Amino acid sequence: MIPSSLSQSNAGMRKRSGILRAETINMSHGSGGKAMRDLIEDVFLGAFENVQLDVLEDQARIDLSQLTAFGNRLALTTDSYVVDPIFFRGGDIGKLAVCGTVNDLAVGGAKPLYLTCSVIIEEGLSVLDLRRIVESMRVAAVAADVRIVTGDTKVVERGACDKIFINTAGVGVIASSVNVSAAGAKPGDLVLINGFIGDHGAAIVGARKDLAIENEIDSDCAPLNNLIAAIVAVCPEIHCMRDATRGGIASVLNEFAISSKVSIKIKESVIPLRNEVRGMCEILGLDPLYLANEGKVVVVVPRQHADAVLAAMKNDKHGRDSAIIGEIFAEPEETVVLQTVFGGERIVDMLVGDQLPRIC
User: Fold this and answer.
1) CA-based nearest residue to 74, from 145, 4, 175, 2
2) Average pLDDT of 258-262?
3) Of the N and C termini of the chain, which has fewer Cβ atoms inside 10 Å?
4) How many independent structural domains does the chain possess?
5) Do residues 97 and 81 make contact, with C-beta atoms less than 8 angstroms apart?
6) Would residue 12 count as lying in a domain?
7) What is the DSSP letter of 24?
8) What does residue 34 show for φ and ψ, rounded to 5 degrees?
């Protein structure tokens, strides 16, 4: 939980008076004048209200004591979101922005605490759509127990961007006892994942009408910091951990193999994959190992801790379908090998090109 010192009263906070009456965003909403003030106060401050944000300074001011209460190392990350379409089954660009940044902090062993939110809005975007996106961000931030404390708003002419782009940065704190690294895998370690792969990629395919492939698969977009905290609690000496977003689990495993100079062997038969996703991949000629995820973490742990980590993952709502999917070997170095359901083996290389552009 965020420390009680952050849960300050609203006393002394700025009284908001702005009301956004327009039905669509226009250039005046990025001009720095009253229209922009109404947009910020009504839409953003109304959703993200907190002491740091509401004073409308050019920066969030945070007492160091509120950070050092959780550890001695600062974690900082940033990411931009340009997903097309901006709404899809199981989420939208707003939820994606919060969850993605929270997860980037958490997989480093950090406790996420604060986020920034910068938006570039295309002239003509529906105000109702903007409110929907911002509300998704608010809900996701509450679920992850983080606070959005500062931001920026820009409006560009029609055609200069695609509806809305969002950049978020995140701040977290890492305890001194945690040291997670892509270079930490060792022979004998086991590889785990917290559930079905490829759901986000499949959800985006279903939302893109031009592909003419419809499905009812929800994106797995979710904040994983609580699940990861449970993993760290039972196994502080996690060797590797990363969320499998663009490039899927294949890219993450290759990053581990290259950084750790090891071989990773995974079994196709035990990798959680929905039949609907498998079928979609067969129709479109896609490999589910490379499909994007937004709620999946790949973890490498010492063999003796694998059962405890698996149990902790399964005890979280975002890890019910967790599985041990592979093992680390010494050779051949920097290689990922898939043992197929037919008993053969094939090399799983890094992704070349882009299976699905603008996936997040």
Assistant:
1) 175
2) 98
3) N
4) 2
5) yes
6) no
7) B
8) -65, -40
User: Where among 114, 149, 174 does a domain terminate?
Assistant: 174
The residue type found at 86 is I
Q: Which residue, chain included where needed, has tokens 């037919």?
A: 342
Same domain, 221 and 115: no
Tens digit of each residue's pLDDT (9 = 90 or more) over 123-162:
999 999 999 999 999 999 999 999 999 999 999 999 999 9
Domain of 130, CATH number, reads 3.30.1330.10
Residue 352 lies in a domain: no
Residues in the chain: 360
pTM (2 d.p.) = 0.94
Asked if 237 and 302 sit in the same domain, the reply is yes
Reduce the DSSP state of residue 96 to 3 states and report it: helix
Domain of 151, in residue numbers: 23-174
Residue 92 to residues 67, 96, 140, 278, Cα–Cα distance (Å): 30, 6, 11, 23
Beta carbons within 10 angstroms of residue 242's beta carbon:
22
In angstroms, rounded to a whole number, what is the distance separating the alpha carbons of residues 155 and 31? 8
Q: Where are the alpha helices (DSSP H) in 268-342?
A: 275-284, 306-314
* Strand, coil or helix: 327: strand
Which of 63-72, 224-233, 314-323 comes out lowest in average pLDDT? 63-72
Domain assignment present for residue 223? The answer is yes
Residues 265 and 128 placed together within one structural domain of the fold: no
In angstroms, the Cα distances linking 237 to 11, 94, 304 are 43, 33, 11
Q: Is residue 3 part of a domain?
A: no
CA distance 225 to 231: 10
CA-to-CA distance for 187 and 299, rounded, in angstroms?
14
Domain finish residue from 118, 148, 174: 174
The share of the chain scoring above pLDDT 90, in percent, equals 88
Beta strands in 35-179 (DSSP E): 73-81, 87-88, 91-92, 110-122, 147-156, 164-174
Residues 255 and 323 in one domain: yes
Residue type, 84: D
The verdict on 94 and 122 lying in the same domain is: yes
Q: Do 124 and 156 form a contact (C-beta atoms < 8 A)?
A: no
CB atoms within 10 A of CB 63: 11
Same domain as 160, residue 258:
no
